[in-house]
Amino acid sequence: MEERKGIITMKGQPLTLVGKGLKVGEPAPDFEVLANDLSPVKLSSFRGKICIISSVPSLDTSVCDTMTRRFNQEAVNLGDDMVVLTISMDLPFAQKRWCGAADVKNVQTLSDHRGASFGNAFGVLIKELRLLARAVFVVDKEGVVRYVQMVNELTNEPDYEAVLQAVKDITG
């Protein structure tokens, strides 16, 4: 598996990403993760919808919490032909508990803990931590990557406005 260095840091310390980095215009690779009820979920099951995929290290950290709550608020205005997915290595049970406590109902949380299928496919698996890097991807209705934002420093939030603009660019 390909390894990439120098793309992200945590508190200034460089980390290694496993997997090929995605580029705009490429088909989004399929992956299989777990829903909060332990059922398998594949990216391909969302074909026909625009997907905002938010990759976070752990919902139980302040930045991931803030990021997921923000996308939960934004999802209300996105329409029925879009879905917001937040993927982490957290166990499905922890994700379900967090969503209940945070009253998050507009974002679907998914767990990559079992096989790191998403992390490897999208190139966001952090080798040193076996967590996912903070990143946001927008995949169009045909399954093509239309936007990629890798957050350079793991402790920083993404540029939400740039993500929302990418969605607007797709929807016209």
Set down the secondary structure blueprint.
Blueprint: E1 3-10, E2 13-18, E3 32-34, E4 40-42, E5 50-55, H1 62-75, E6 82-88, H2 92-102, E7 108-111, H3 117-122, E8 125-126, E9 131-132, E10 135-139, E11 145-150, H4 160-171
Parallel strand pairs: 5-6, 6-7
Antiparallel strand pairs: 1-2, 2-8, 3-4, 5-10, 8-9, 10-11
Short synopsis of the structure:
This protein is 25% helix and 30% strand. With 172 residues, it is α+β, with helices and mostly antiparallel strands. The N and C termini lie far apart (37 Å).
Name the features.
single chain, 172 residues, alpha+beta, Glutaredoxin, five-stranded mixed beta sheet, four-stranded antiparallel beta sheet, 4 helices, 11 strands, 25% helix, globular
Write up what this structure looks like.
By secondary structure, this protein is α+β, with helices and mostly antiparallel strands. It has one domain (3-171): Glutaredoxin, CATH 3.40.30. It is built from four helices and eleven strands, in the order βββββαβαβαββββα. The protein has helices spanning 62-75, 92-102, 117-122, 160-171; strands at residues 3-10, 13-18, 32-34, 40-42, 50-55, 82-88, 108-111, 125-126, 131-132, 135-139, 145-150. The strands form three sheets. A five-stranded mixed beta sheet has the order 7-6-5-10-11. It is globular. The mean pLDDT is 95.
